[in-house]
């Protein structure tokens, strides 16, 4: 008897505004920090920008057809804050807001449920110019934007995510300088920006709920998963603690609990307080109540992880991968186990239904001599990750949906158009869309609710 996913499992695809919309100057949209960053020499691969991207802004109906044609019931999209509020706050740009009206209606007309992310990194330049996340008022400005969106779309949109991957836009954008706004702030500033992001998240949740009782709200942080190489209890326990702990060193911001504990449990984790306490904004505890708003689900983006084993003291030690081990074009190792252990560890701690809000494979796909795009590695990546997820669910993890990243090839931030993540190939010269083999393969998975997945995949090596 082939194993299916649970009845009603939400099969979806994802994308984000700046990565696909283009039309950067259309209808009164204001600039975002990603426009500025991408126009700055040496920041993005070959000087690529999102100015045109996939021109989804003008081709959304065709893209909605592609999503519906896949059989996907859900589409995770993000809203461009500067398209709606060119100054970040204050005057609403009706024409910009109108785009999301049309997009939402196009999706609903095709039986696709929109799941909206409010912040997928494209902060209005005007907000950054007023201090960005370092300015405590950014939390109120973001809540204002959330209220505008919920007010306008709340009659049709029930599913919301506040922010996408605070770890990445804070870590790479505010500490490492590789992403917009390209800053390398010192630790106290990064912690302050982070605190305001959490406050913005909490205030946005309240703003969305104030607009409608039916709203279901979550967020979509990055999942930094340490997973055990064996099922020995010591290895599992070490991996769990490492997944939920804060790594030593400069890359501490790639963790879960520093963000998720205040949002979902109501306080920063003790381990972080011990380490950063004196550097935190004064009176940070007074914001706990505003940050800690009930959520309906825990979205998480998981692409890769760290295989570990416990040492004699019970600490997780990362294990080397064998030479020649498969990696995607991002040099991310292919580790389907992350979709087994990740949801399990996160659900145990935060007790919310889990949605995989992103997972996918970077590759250099091209149009083959027969006119088709044969992306066998993506098919295999997807297959293995879904098998792991199905096993996690069978073993009790409460996972309700999966959004593949991405429906279309798109602007991959600092990597520009160098690598492709889509189920649909985009010819950036003509903007033609060509569904890849993976599109048809995922279509089958959705149609059979996972029953077509193989039972015994050959191990990766
Ligand atoms: C995530 C981002 C998403 C996409 C994927 C590949 O970190 O949320 O926009 O770029 O990585």
Structural class category: alpha/beta
* Unreliable spans: none
CATH architecture, by name, is Alpha-Beta Barrel
User: What would the average pLDDT be, to the nearest integer?
Assistant: 97
Total count of helical runs of at least 4 residues: 16
End-to-end separation in angstroms reads: 28 Å
Q: Order of strands across the biggest sheet?
A: 5-4-3-2-1-11-10-7
Number of domains: 1
The CATH H-level homologous superfamily: Glycosidases
Number of strands: 13
CATH class: Alpha Beta
Order of helices and strands: EHHHEHHEHHEHHEEHHHHEEEHEHEEEH
> Strand percentage, roughly?
5-15%
Helix content: 25-40%
Question: How would you describe this protein?
Answer:
By secondary structure, this protein is α/β, with parallel strands linked by helices. The protein has a single domain, classed as TIM Barrel (Alpha-Beta Barrel). The chain is 39% helix and 14% strand. The protein is built from 16 helices and 13 strands. The chain has helices at residues 17-20, 33-39, 56-70, 81-84, 94-109, 125-129, 138-153, 166-175, 187-211, 233-244, 257-265, 270-276, 288-291, 338-350, 376-394, 437-448; strands spanning 10-14, 74-78, 113-119, 159-164, 216-220, 225-228, 298-301, 305-310, 316-318, 354-358, 399-405, 424-426, 433-435. The strands form three sheets. It has an eight-stranded parallel sheet. Strands 6-8-9 form a three-stranded mixed sheet. It has a two-stranded antiparallel ribbon with strand order 12-13. β12 (424-426) and β13 form a beta hairpin. α8 packs antiparallel against α9 (187-211) and α15 (376-394) packs parallel to α16 (437-448). The protein is globular. It starts with 9 loop residues before the first strand and ends in a 13-residue tail after the last helix. The model has no long low-confidence stretch (mean pLDDT 97). The structure holds beta-D-fucopyranose (FCB). Beta-D-fucopyranose is lined by residues 16, 19, 164-165, 168, 301, 358, 405, 412-413, 421. Beta-D-fucopyranose binds at residues 16, 19, 164-165, 168, 301, 358, 405, 412-413, 421.
């Amino acid at each position: 008897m082939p194993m299916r996913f649970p009845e009603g499992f939400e099969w979806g695809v994802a994308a984000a505004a700046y990565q696909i919309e283009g039309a950067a100057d259309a209808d009164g949209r204001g600039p975002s920090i990603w426009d500025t960053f991408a126009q700055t020499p040496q920041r993005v691969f070959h000087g690529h920008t999102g100015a045109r991207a996939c021109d989804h802004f003008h081709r959304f109906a065709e893209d909605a057809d592609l999503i519906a044609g896949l059989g996907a019931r859900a589409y995770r999209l993000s809203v461009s804050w500067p398209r709606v509020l060119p100054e970040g706050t204050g005057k609403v740009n009706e024409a910009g807001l109108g785009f999301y009206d049309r997009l939402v209606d196009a999706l609903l007309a095709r039986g696709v449920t929109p799941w909206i992310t409010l912040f997928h990194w494209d902060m209005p330049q005007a907000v950054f110019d007023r201090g960005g996340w370092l300015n405590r008022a950014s939390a109120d400005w973001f809540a204002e934007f959330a209220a505008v969106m919920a007010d306008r779309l709340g009659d049709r949109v029930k599913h919301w995510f506040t922010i996408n991957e605070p770890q990445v836009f804070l870590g790479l954008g505010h500490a490492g300088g590789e992403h917009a706004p390209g800053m390398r702030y010192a630790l106290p500033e990064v912690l302050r920006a982070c605190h305001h992001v959490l406050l913005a998240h909490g205030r946005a949740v309240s703003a969305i709920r104030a607009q409608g009782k039916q709203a279901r709200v979550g967020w979509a942080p990055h999942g930094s998963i340490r997973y055990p190489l064996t099922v020995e209890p010591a290895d599992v326990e070490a991996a769990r603690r490492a997944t939920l702990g804060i790594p030593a060193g400069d890359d501490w911001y790639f963790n879960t609990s520093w963000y998720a504990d205040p949002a979902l449990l109501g306080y920063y984790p003790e381990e972080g307080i011990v380490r950063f306490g004196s550097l935190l904004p004064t009176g940070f505890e007074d914001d706990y109540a505003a940050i800690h708003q009930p959520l309906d689900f825990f979205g998480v983006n998981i692409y890769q992880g760290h295989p570990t084993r416990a040492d004699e003291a019970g600490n997780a030690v990362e294990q080397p991968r064998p030479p020649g081990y498969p990696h995607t074009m991002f040099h991310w190792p292919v580790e389907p186990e992350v979709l087994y252990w990740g949801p399990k560890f996160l659900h145990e701690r935060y007790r919310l239904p889990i949605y995989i809000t992103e997972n996918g494979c970077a590759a250099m796909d091209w149009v083959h001599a027969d006119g088709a795009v044969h992306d066998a590695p993506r098919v295999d990546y997807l297959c293995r990750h879904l098998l792991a997820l199905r096993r996690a669910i069978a073993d009790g993890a409460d996972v309700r949906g999966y959004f593949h990243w991405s429906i279309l090839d798109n602007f991959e931030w600092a990597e520009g158009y160098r690598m492709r993540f889509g189920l649909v190939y985009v010819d950036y010269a003509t903007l033609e869309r060509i569904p890849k083999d993976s599109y048809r393969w995922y279509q089958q998975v959705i149609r059979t609710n996972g029953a077509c997945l193989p039972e015994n995949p050959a191990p990766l090596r």
